[in-house]
Design goal:
Blueprint lengths: L8 H11 L8 H26 L10 E4 L1 H25 L1 H8 L3 H17 L4 E4 L4 H5 L5 E5 H11 L3 H21 L2 H15 L5 H20 L6 H4 L3 H27 L8 H12 L4 H10 L1 H27 L12 H4 L2 H9 L1
Parallel strand pairs: 1-3
Antiparallel strand pairs: 2-3
Helix pairs in contact: 1-3, 1-5, 2-8, 3-5, 3-9, 7-8, 8-12, 9-12, 12-15, 15-17
């Protein structure tokens, strides 16, 4: 009989579904109208993104899925399972030597933990471009799939009291920008997968090493909860080599998120008349609500994620101001042209390195 997997992803989805709170109440007709509106907004956004970014994404297509919170959980469990599988395989290869440390937990416990995380995130995400999930993406037939979480979008527009049509198009502009990034830049997904492979290769699963990292992490976790540290839970269990890889990936994610934010705001009031009002209210909403919410955001690194949007947008605007959108698009010509973590904060340095 084969050994059970480290993470029971089916149980993770079941756990998340039990923890998910219902979204705003909508009648059947109202929900159908929201789905139709989001599909229309997504199609409209495609043309505007293409015109603004000057990127050609016509060579590939990806499905647009309007989902509820449970649907988002199922889709991301599928994507996560693929992304973490190399690490799971490496740890499982050492199963006998580390059984004393992880054997007591079992795949269902790790599945429950993953499910709790997915449930929490399922209430936060408005939309997402998933470059890894789905059978078509696995086969290489699609650059990924675009997910729009209908109840979260409706809840956000009601909470912020903004124009629904404007807000839905604004959200779709951001997510469509991500679809264009991965469709027009076909090497981007493989590059991120290669970075994940490097992270796994740098993972030390030696039991003594793991014990030492756990001991060191107790003090750092206390600092993190108090707010004395800028790290996340992930940082507590990574080596210096892994954190170097994380820095590279963070720079790429800052670029992608910042680029999408510049696009969603750059279309102008002719496309989204209330864009200024939406942006100011949305930025306030991004900061989190109460102390417990802010603590969870800090533990999960979501505060760092928020900084990625601002830092990445400043980088994109700084480069475009110097060399225009065509000059900025040199960033998509190959991995060597991607900005470093230092260059994200110094767009002039990137311009000098790439354009001379």
């Amino acid at each position: 009989m084969s050994e059970p997997a480290m993470i029971d992803w089916d149980f993770a989805v079941q756990t998340a579904r039990r923890l998910i709170r219902p979204g705003p109440y909508l009648s059947g007709d109202e929900m159908h109208a929201v789905v139709d509106s989001l599909r229309t907004s997504s199609a409209t956004a495609e043309e505007h993104v293409r015109e603004l970014t000057l990127l050609d994404a016509s060579t590939g297509s990806s499905p647009v899925l309007v989902v509820d919170r449970a649907g988002w959980v199922a889709a991301n469990a599928d994507g996560f399972s693929r992304v973490v599988q190399p690490l799971v395989e490496k740890v499982e290869a050492q199963r006998n030597s580390i059984a004393g440390m992880v054997g007591a937990f079992g795949s269902r416990v790790t599945g429950a933990e993953a499910g709790a995380l997915l449930a929490f995130l399922s209430h936060k995400v408005l939309g997402q471009f998933d470059p890894f999930g789905g059978d078509a993406a696995r086969r290489g037939d699609s650059p990924g799939r675009l997910l729009l979480v209908a109840p979260n979008i409706v809840a956000a527009e009601q909470e912020m009291e903004v124009d629904a049509d404007d807000f839905r198009l604004w959200v779709c502009l951001h997510e469509e920008a991500h679809r264009v990034q991965f469709t027009a830049v076909p090497w981007l997904r493989d590059h991120l997968l290669a970075e994940i492979g490097a992270f796994v290769a740098a993972t030390d699963v030696d039991p003594e090493r793991l014990r030492g990292m756990m001991t060191e992490s107790v003090q750092r976790l206390t600092e993190l909860v108090r707010g004395d540290s800028g790290t996340s839970v992930l940082d507590l269990f990574t080596s210096a080599e892994q954190r170097t890889i994380i820095d590279r990936v963070t720079a790429v994610m800052s670029l992608l998120e910042g680029h999408a934010d510049v696009v969603m705001d750059g279309v102008g009031t002719s496309v989204v008349p209330s864009v200024g009002k939406i942006r100011s209210r949305f930025d306030r909403r991004r900061k989190g609500r109460g102390p417990s919410d802010r603590l969870l955001r800090r533990l999960l690194g979501l505060e760092a994620k928020m900084r990625q949007y601002a830092d990445g947008a400043a980088f994109v605007n700084g480069v475009v101001d110097r060399v225009g959108m065509t000059g900025f698009n040199a960033v998509w010509t190959g991995p060597e042209q991607l900005p470093t973590a230092a260059e994200i904060g110094d767009p002039a340095a990137w311009v000098t390195r790439v354009h001379g």
